[in-house]
Design brief:
The chain is mainly α and about 450 residues long. Helix content is about 60%, strand content about 0%. It has one domain. The protein has 19 helices and two strands. It has a two-stranded antiparallel ribbon with strand order 1-2. A hairpin with a 5-residue loop joins β1 and β2. α3 crosses α4, α4 crosses α5 and α5 packs across α6.
């Protein structure tokens, strides 16, 4: 390992370790529902050998309720259980060593956040440095680019909490780095192994956060753009898909029994075959019109509303560009790559990044997602932010006027300040309803920390 390769990961750890949520907000009443649901599942797996969370010490509203034929209710987290299952391994070791959520909650939560999110992001920062070889930049510039991506994209904001989106973004970067390494490898056997690892990482990202599915699909054509023989490309596609099936099958085995479909699977031995349909306290879908309206809106009214929601994803109170305007440099880098003579597989990977990002934004727009649930900036878009800004490396290698560099420095400085501000508490229990612009809300929460409620707001079976 070279010193420059380690510089970005070390800086990421130095920034994140003192800002971790268990240190700043150890009170369980201040933990967000999203994080409590994940911690509850980890505790249930290790201590009770099930995915049921009603007997854990965590109180969350992010649950689904399964009712048996006899009327008995069982609570489950409404999140994908894959991340919790993988983190149950470290927690099992901690539990055997005497560290548990009941006796040592701060230490246990801190270590799980470190293993599950912070360390993967730091490792991904090192991979960004290695991927930047495609831009033919000097090592200090590549290290600076890797650090700028982690901080300027807002990724570091969620490196201090147990966020599935931030971990999924790290896995997407790992998957993309594996494909880049495969294209550089001179030995076909090693290159095919890298392709398999890339498929495994990208599929695992999709099981963490459903938005990662866009990258799992759109990165597949990158293999077809390799300058390999036809049968080698076919083998690469087969290995990519085969490796991707491993985490996808794990997800199916863990998640589908909760809905009562098929037979009980992993960690679901308590579920009988006769279960009713899942009833969720929080509706997963949002109606296209309210009950007060006599008839659904017209096509043009619905299209205008969707367009407004689409714009809000970029320039609203949770907008990407209003928080991290340095992403503009990433888009300029994408344009530079597409307009100039770059390798075909690089151009295809750039297109895959943009198509995945567009698909994710449009998906949340069409389902009329409530932006208030996006927490700081927009946690739903974390999966594509690092790779989007990474392509700014193509812009960096070109000569620019001094004024242009000043503007770029100002854009990154503003984005970095907002991202570090968000890292102090990106997922507060009460959200950011008081201030529409979440950066202002994060600043006020930092200046005047919110008080913990006198009781836990738990919704169970309602």
């Amino acid at each position: 390992m070279r010193p420059w390769a380690l510089s970005a990961p070390i800086f990421v750890l130095l920034i994140c370790l003192p800002l971790m949520r268990p240190l700043r907000h150890p009170n369980p009443e201040m933990i967000s529902d999203d994080e409590q649901a994940r911690l509850a599942t980890i505790q249930a797996i290790v201590e009770q050998h099930t995915l049921q969370i009603q007997r854990t010490i965590f109180a969350t509203r992010d649950v689904v309720v399964v009712r048996d034929r006899d009327g008995q209710q069982r609570l489950y987290s409404d999140q994908s259980p894959v991340m919790a299952v993988l983190l149950s391994g470290p927690y099992w070791v901690m539990h055997r060593a005497g560290l548990s959520f009941e006796r040592n909650p701060v230490i246990a939560e801190y270590l799980l956040t470190l293993f599950g999110v912070t360390l993967p992001i730091a490792f991904a920062a090192g991979l960004l440095y290695r991927m930047a070889r495609i831009f033919e930049l000097r090592r200090p510039v590549r290290a600076g680019l890797a650090l700028a991506v982690v901080i300027g994209s807002g990724w570091i904001s969620y490196a201090t909490v147990l966020s599935a989106g931030a971990a999924a973004a790290a896995l997407v970067v790992m998957g993309a780095a594996c494909l880049v390494q495969a294209s550089f490898s001179a030995r076909r056997g090693a290159a095919l192994a890298w392709v398999a690892v890339g498929g495994l990482c990208t599929a695992l990202a999709a099981t963490y956060d459903l938005t990662g599915l866009a990258f799992l699909v759109f990165l597949l054509p990158v293999l077809c753009a390799f300058k390999w023989r036809r049968m080698e490309r076919v083998a690469a596609v087969a290995l990519y898909i085969g490796a991707a099936l491993i985490p996808l099958l794990l997800y199916v085995g863990l998640n589908r029994p909760i809905t009562g479909d098929l037979r009980p699977g992993f960690l679901h031995t308590e579920l009988p075959h006769e279960t009713e349909k899942v009833i969720a306290p929080k509706s997963a879908t949002i109606s296209r019109w309210t009950d007060e309206e006599e008839e659904p809106p017209t096509f043009w009214h619905s299209a205008w509303r969707d367009f407004g929601s689409f714009l809000s994803a970029f320039v609203g109170g949770h907008g990407l560009l209003t928080h991290f305007p340095v992403l503009i440099l990433g888009i300029l880098g994408v344009v530079s790559i597409l307009r100039r003579h770059w390798p075909t597989n690089t151009k295809v990977m750039v297109c895959a990044t943009m198509l995945a990002a567009l698909a994710i934004v449009i998906g949340y727009t069409l389902q009329h997602a409530d932006w208030n649930d996006a927490m700081f900036a927009n946690r739903w878009f974390l999966v594509f932010l690092p790779l989007t800004l990474f392509w700014a490396g193509a812009w960096l290698r070109r000569p620019h006027l001094a004024g242009t560099w000043v503007v770029a420095a100002l854009l990154w400085s503003f984005s970095a300040f907002i991202a570090l501000l968000g890292a102090t508490d990106p997922q507060p229990r009460q959200g950011f309803d008081r201030y529409k612009y979440t950066a202002a809300g994060a600043w006020m929460n930092l200046v005047n920390p919110p008080q913990a409620p006198s009781h836990r707001d738990l919704v169970a079976g309602e």
